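Technical note accompanying the year-one report. For the benefit of new consortium partners, we illustrate the data format agreed upon in the data management plan: each record pairs a sequence with a structure-token string. No post-processing was applied to the example shown here.
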Amino acid sequence: MSDNYIKQQKQIIQQLKDNIQQRQSQLSIVEMRSDYENDDAIGLASLSFPPKDITQIISKEIIAQLQSVDSHHFYYSSECLHITIKNIRYVNNPPLFKNEDVVKVNELFTQIVPKFQSFTFRLEGLILFPTSVSLVGYCDETLRKLVQALDLGLKQIGVPDNKKYISDTVFFGNMTLCRFTREPSSSFQKKVKELESLYIGEMRVTEISLVICNAVCHPKTTKVIGTYKLSMN
């Protein structure tokens, strides 16, 4: 893994944490909801789903720990856990995309994704966002090159990503584990702090799926449009 790119990712994450603490975050953040499971606001995004051994570790080492402190929030089940590789259309009701957009994006991903090498996320450390908790995935510059190629392609086909980011050159894996249904308690925040530097393991990304789903990727709202394999050379 490129140490230099991981260093840049760590700097961006620190900047993100500082901004959140100072309440200066300009990022697109999913608003707090009382019922995420049945939420009918949907989006279009490309995701990578972790293997079972990784989801079991995450469920035991992080999710169960947070749940024991406050069970009221929405916690991701193993089947909902994912890393967003590239957002396309942010969750909304009504959706901010049409069927023809989905067809165009599917064609674009079919062309672009196989040109890139498979890569590995090093899953380590938590971020406490205003309405959620995420596990961070560090990786090499393959992610940057892939995301920028997809970004350019999406603009060219007239379906640009409508989400705001802290950087347009430094990207990291973001796996949401929990979404808040109310303000997190001080004991919950303390538990996140305790687990802040936890190392989970490595996750190899060999394929990416284009998915329509709600904010928590709940199975009842999820529709996989296509799955595209990365090069294994």
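Partners are asked to follow this layout when depositing records. The first strand starts at residue 42 and ends at 48.
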